[in-house]
C-alpha cells in the first residue's frame, strides 16, 4: 500500500513521504499526516522474534512506503549500529514492579538520537541526486539540538542550524552544543524561551522571501524537530521493541496490553506510541506526564488547551514547552481527518491563545490517553526514592514520568516508563536530588561527585566535554534568527 501525506490543515496536495521528510513542515504551517495510518499492520509475532534493526525496517517500510526495501535497510544499518552502546539499542530493564525503556544509549545520551541518527539518512536518500542543498533549522529545548548536530554533522549536501534558549538548558547540554565540530554546523543562543525559538523557526519556514533568496543559491530549508515525519516514524520502533522484550522476559504473552508512561514536551514521543497502537501494537493506556508546565494535563482533563500561562523553568528543561506541536497530528486523527476543524483550532491557538475540543472529542481522547504532572520537588523526591529503593539512577525527565506512574492505579497490565536521557546530562540537579552538595560546583564537579556517590560511570561522550573548546559563542534576538540562518547557509554552502 502506498502512504501519501498531506497537511493536517489541508487534505488536498498529497506528497510522498520523501517529499514530506524533505520539506519538514507543510507550506500552510500544518504537519504532514497520512490517512493510511492503521491500514497496514506490523506483524507482531515476527516483531517478537526479531531484533531492533529488523523491527525498525518493518516499521519504517510501513510508514514510509516510497522508500525501497534496500534504501530502508541501508538507513537502518547505518543508524542503529555501534553508535549505540547497547546491542538492543533501546534496552528494557526492571524498576520495582515496572519497567524502564532506556532510550538514551545513543551518541548524545538522549532519546532524540533514536530518531536523529536516522533522519539524516532518510533525508539523504530523499534528496537523491537532486543538486539542492538542505539546511536543517531546529529550535531546541536542550536535547534535540545536540542530537541533530551529531546526526547531521558531515552529512553531504546538508547543513544544520540550531537555536537554543539562552540560560535555559543544563550546563552539560549547553557544552554539548557549543563544542560541536564540523564545517556544516551553526549554533546560536536566543534571548527568549524555547517556545519563542520554535515559533520563530516556524515563521522562518513560512518566509517566502527568504525561501526565494535561498533557492537562488540552490538551498532549501527543512526541519529536524519532531514535526518532521522522518523523526516521528523511527520513534515508533521502540514501542514495538519494548513489547518484544517484555514477551522475551516472560512478563507478558503476545497479545497482552501494555501501558506506557511518557515524559512529554512536544508530544512527539508519545504520539509515536499512538502510531504504534494504530499499527497493531497492543497498547493499553498512553499516559502523558508533564512537569510544572502542565498545559497538557489541563488539556486532557478539561478539553481546553490554553497556552496563556506563565512559562516555568524547571529541572526537566526538555519538557519546558507550552505549545506542543505534535498534538496537532493527534487532533487530526481524533477528528477523523477533519482538516478544516484542525485548521480552525490552530487559528484559535494562534489568535486567542487557546482552543477547546468539546466533550465528545475529549471522551474519545481519554479512551487511550491519561495524564498527570510532577513539580520539581516531587521530581527530586522520585529521583531520590528510585535511587534509594531500586538502585536505579534516573534523570529528571524520566523522574517526572516515574512520579506520574507511581501515582496511577495499576490495572493489571505491565507498565513501561520511557526513560529519555542519561542522568549525567543533568548532573547538578540529579546530585542535588540525592542530597549531594551542588553549591558553587559546575556541571563537571557535579558529575564527578555523582559518580563518587553512586559508583555509576558517566558516559565518555559527556565527561570528555570538559576538554573541548567552545566553537559557537553566538547569541541573538528572535528577530535576528532569519538573518543568522541566511548567513549560515552562505557559509556552509559557499
Ligand atoms: C525531548 C525530550 C522529551 C520530550 O519529548 P517530546 O517528544 O518533545 O514530547 C522528554 N525528555 C527528554 C530528555 C527529551 O529530550
From TrEMBL:
Pfam families: PALP, Thr_synth_N. The modification N6-(pyridoxal phosphate)lysine is found at residue 112. Its EC number is 4.2.3.1. The keyword Nucleotidyltransferase does not apply. It comes from the Bacteria. Keywords: Lyase, Pyridoxal phosphate. Residues 102-331 form the Tryptophan synthase beta chain-like PALP domain. GO terms for molecular function: threonine synthase activity. Its cofactor is pyridoxal 5'-phosphate. The keyword Lyase applies. One of its GO terms (biological process) is threonine biosynthetic process. Residues 5-80 form the Threonine synthase N-terminal domain. GO terms for cellular component: cytoplasm. This is Threonine synthase. It comes from Olsenella porci.
Amino acid at each position: 500500500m502506498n502512504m501519501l501525506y498531506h497537511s493536517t490543515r489541508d487534505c488536498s496536495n498529497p506528497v510522498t513521504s520523501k517529499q514530506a521528510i524533505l520539506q519538514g513542515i507543510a507550506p500552510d504551517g500544518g504537519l504532514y499526516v497520512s490517512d493510511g495510518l492503521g491500514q497496514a499492520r506490523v506483524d507482531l509475532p515476527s516483531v517478537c522474534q526479531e531484533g531492533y534493526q529488523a523491527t525498525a525496517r518493518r516499521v519504517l517500510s510501513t510508514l514510509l512506503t516510497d522508500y525501497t526495501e534496500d534504501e530502508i535497510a541501508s538507513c537502518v544499518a547505518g543508524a542503529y549500529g555501534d553508535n549505540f552502546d547497547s546491542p538492543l539499542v533501546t534496552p528494557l530493564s526492571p524498576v520495582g514492579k515496572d519497567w524502564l525503556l532506556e532510550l538514551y544509549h545513543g551518541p548524545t545520551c538522549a532519546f532524540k538520537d533514536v530518531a536523529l541518527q536516522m533522519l539524516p539518512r532518510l533525508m539523504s536518500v530523499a534528496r537523491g541526486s537532486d543538486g539542492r542543498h538542505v539546511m536543517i533549522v531546529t529550535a531546541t529545548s536542550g536535547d534535540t539540538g545536540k542530537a541533530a548536530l551529531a546526526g547531521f554533522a558531515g552529512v553531504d549536501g546538508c547543513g544544520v542550524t540550531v537555536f537554543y534558549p539562552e540560560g535555559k538548558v543544563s550546563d552539560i547540554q549547553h557544552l554539548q552544543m557549543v563544542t560541536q565540530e564540523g564545517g556544516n554546523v551553526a549554533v546560536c543562543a536566543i534571548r527568549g524561551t524555547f517556545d519563542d525559538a520554535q515559533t520563530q523557526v516556524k515563521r522562518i519556514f513560512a518566509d517566502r522571501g527568504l525561501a526565494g533568496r535561498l533557492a537562488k543559491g540552490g538551498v532549501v530549508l527543512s526541519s529536524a524537530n519532531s514535526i518532521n515525519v522522518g523523526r516521528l516514524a523511527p520513534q515508533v520502533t521502540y514501542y514495538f521493541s519494548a513489547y518484544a522484550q517484555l514477551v522475551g522476559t516472560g512478563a507478558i504473552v503476545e497479545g497482552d496490553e501494555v501501558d506506557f508512561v511518557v515524559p512529554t514536551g512536544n508530544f512527539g514521543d508519545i504520539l509515536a506510541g499512538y502510531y504504534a497502537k494504530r499499527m497493531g501494537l497492543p497498547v493499553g493506556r498512553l499516559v502523558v506526564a508533564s512537569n510544572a508546565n502542565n498545559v497538557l494535563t489541563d488539556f486532557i482533563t478539561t478539553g481546553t488547551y490554553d497556552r496563556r500561562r506563565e512559562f516555568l523553568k524547571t529541572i526537566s528543561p526538555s519538557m519546558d514547552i507550552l505549545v506542543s506541536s505534535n498534538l496537532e497530528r493527534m487532533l487530526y486523527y481524533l477528528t477523523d481527518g477533519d482538516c478544516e476543524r484542525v485548521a480552525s483550532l490552530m487559528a484559535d491557538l494562534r489568535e486567542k491563545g487557546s482552543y477547546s475540543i468539546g466533550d465528545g472529542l475529549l471522551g474519545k481522547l481519554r479512551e487511550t490517553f491519561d495524564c498527570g504532572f510532577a513539580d520539581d520537588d516531587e521530581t527530586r523526591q522520585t529521583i531520590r526514592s528510585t535511587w534509594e529503593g531500586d538502585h536505579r539512577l534516573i534523570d529528571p525527565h524520566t523522574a517526572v514520568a516515574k512520579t506520574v506512574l507511581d501515582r496511577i492505579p495499576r490495572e493489571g497490565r505491565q507498565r513501561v516508563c520511557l526513560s529519555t536521557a542519561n542522568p549525567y546530562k543533568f548532573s547538578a540537579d540529579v546530585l542535588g536530588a540525592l542530597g549531594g552538595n551542588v553549591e558553587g560546583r559546575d556541571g563537571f564537579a557535579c558529575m564527578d561527585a555523582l559518580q563518587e556517590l553512586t559508583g555509576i560511570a558517566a558516559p565518555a561522550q559527556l565527561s570528555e566535554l570538559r576538554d573541548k573548546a567552545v566553537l559557537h559563542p553566538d547569541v541573538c534576538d528572535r528577530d535576528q534568527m532569519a538573518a543568522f540562518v541566511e548567513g549560515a547557509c552562505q557559509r556552509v554552502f559557499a
